[in-house]
Specification:
Keywords: Annexin, Repeat. InterPro entries: Annexin_repeat (IPR018502), Annexin_sf (IPR037104). Pfam families: Annexin. Belongs to the annexin family. By secondary structure, this protein is mainly α. Among the domains are: about 60 residues; about 80 residues, Orthogonal Bundle (Annexin V, domain 1), CATH 1.10.220. The protein has 20 helices and six strands. The strands form three sheets. A two-stranded parallel ribbon has the order 1-6. Strands 2-4 form a two-stranded antiparallel ribbon. Helix 6 packs across helix 8 and helix 13 packs across helix 15. About 45% of the residues are buried.
């Protein structure tokens, strides 16, 4: 498992593509093969153009989303989905992916119905909201008149995945940090320390805030900060810093391009980028890949992987997974658990229905399915899936989806340390996973820390001290993911 050597300079692709309206000139001495469009983005709008956040933005945070099963075999509980959908608290994000509280607005105009079994209630959106309806037929045999529609608010894109997000971001005063960076770039033994101090500052955890810092630095110096750092650093310290300036969306596209350009497709990298993501993030990734590489991502992946594995990726790439606000309906959970058991016992050659169920469900639904399966059959669904799909290319992806849904912190910790194992050590994989956790925000990092304390009784910072070699790369990783939260008191 590797991300194809892990050095940015060994990438293939377009050499001189620039972001439109970029204030930054092309770099004649850029790293060979590194697509400049991955991190040369345009300037932020001036502070006077910033607006107040959209009031109908989000819903409860992911990491506190319980595995709820709606009772009464598919009937809607009184008041839950009648008439108008409730407005979520401002500043919080729907559950289902590791993302910190969202501050941005998104416009949702396309409406498609969600069909759910055995109910006769149709909720209507408020006239002043743009609600999306998502079609999710669980059982084709259920007559249409026995289904009902649920209006849901789609999960917003993560920070860095929607170009309109800077319009709703609070302006940040970067003057002191720009001055420190200017001083650091002039040389001296403390340059790397200053870089880590500035770039790991919590106020720049939002990718758009870091973009603002870089834009302001250019306004003062007429120099490209990312290119300066690339020239003055080396090794995986350089890789991590360059990735920070790429932004999470461009880093995803870059990682996909590397995974798909090698002779042997890097499935581990595909799983890292595509699984356990919101529909909005996936759409942004697909569109960005198309704009940079000119290829249809779904068609390219289909040509590179086995048919059974692409069957897992297909509903993900098409953006048809259940949105995080779609509830887990008892009748549907019961039906799908029965279906999974029937296919697995006795063993069935056709396992595609199981893949369909697990790849299309949201986090709450997956958690409910796993819990109901264990309660009904006294067996762990994760273990049965592992046995059923033994030797199949889609096995690792299915297990990752299940593990993340049932305990995201434990899943993230296991994948993080797996990249540093004695026989699986790969700093490219570790860097990607560490930065994904960093960009996911304080909630994801807190769950990571809690999982580490529960399993090993050690802080993430302590683990990083022992698992990474001494140097600037280790100091950066500790600053990014090892010191962003504290373990809960016992």
């Amino acid at each position: 498992m590797n991300y194809n050597s892990g050095q940015f300079g060994q990438t293939t692709g377009h050499q001189n593509q620039q972001w439109p309206n970029s204030p930054l000139p092309p770099n004649p001495n850029s790293t060979p093969g590194l697509n400049q469009s991955y991190y040369d983005s345009g300037p932020l709008p001036p502070a006077a153009q910033h607006h107040h956040p959209h009031p109908f933005l989000s819903a409860p945070p992911t990491h506190q989303y319980p595995a709820q099963i709606t009772p009464n075999y598919g009937a809607v509980p009184p008041g839950q989905y009648a008439q108008n959908a409730p407005q979520p608290p401002y500043g919080q994000q729907p559950g289902g992916s590791q993302q910190y509280p969202q501050q941005y607005s998104q416009q949702y105009t396309q409406q498609q119905p969600i069909y759910t079994q055995n109910a006769d209630v149709t909720s209507q959106p408020q006239s002043n909201l743009q609600w999306q309806l998502q079609q999710r037929p669980r059982d084709a045999s259920v007559p249409e008149e026995q289904q009902y529609k649920i209006y849901v608010l789609p999960t917003p894109a993560s920070p860095g995945y929607d170009g309109s997000q800077p319009d709703y971001m609070q302006h940040i005063n970067t003057t002191a940090d720009v001055n420190l960076l200017i001083s650091a770039m002039r040389g001296g033994g403390r340059m790397y320390t200053a870089l880590i101090r500035v770039l790991a500052n919590p106020k720049y955890q939002d990718p758009w805030a870091l973009h603002q810092l870089r834009t302001n630095y250019y306004s003062r110096t007429r120099l490209n900060l990312a290119e300066q750092i690339e020239q003055k650093s080396q090794g995986f310290f350089q890789v991590a810093l360059t990735a920070l300036f790429m932004s999470p969306l461009n880093y995803d596209v870059y990682t996909l391009q590397r995974a798909l350009s090698s002779d042997v497709t890097d499935v581990e990298a595909l799983n890292d980028v595509l699984l356990c993501r919101s529909n909005a993030d996936i759409r942004a990734i697909v569109n960005k890949y198309k704009s940079i590489k000119g290829d249809d991502l779904a068609q390219l992946i289909e040509s590179k992987v086995e048919t059974s594995l692409f069957h897992l990726y297909s509903p993900i790439l098409s953006g048809t997974r259940a949105e995080n606000t779609v509830p887990a309906i008892y009748a549907e959970v019961e039906y799908e658990v029965l279906k999974i058991c029937q296919i697995g016992n006795p063993p069935s050659i056709d396992t595609t229905p199981i893949v369909d169920i697990l790849a299309s469900a949201n986090t709450a639904q997956l958690r409910a399915i796993s819990s109901f399966y264990e309660m009904k059959y006294q067996r762990i669904l994760y273990d049965d899936i592992s046995q059923k799909f033994c030797g199949c290319t889609e096995k690792n992806g299915l297990l990752r989806i299940l593990a993340f849904a049932t305990d995201s912190g434990k899943s993230d910790e296991a994948r993080l340390w797996d990249a540093l194992g004695q026989s699986t050590r790969d700093y490219s994989i570790f860097t990607y996973r560490a930065l994904r956790l960093y960009w996911s925000g304080i909630g994801a990092l807190q769950e990571l820390h809690d999982a580490s304390m529960k399993s090993d009784g050690k802080l993430i910072k302590t683990q990083l001290d022992h698992k990474l070699p001494d140097g600037d790369y280790r100091d950066l990783m500790i600053a990014l993911i090892g010191e962003k939260s504290k373990p809960k008191p016992r």
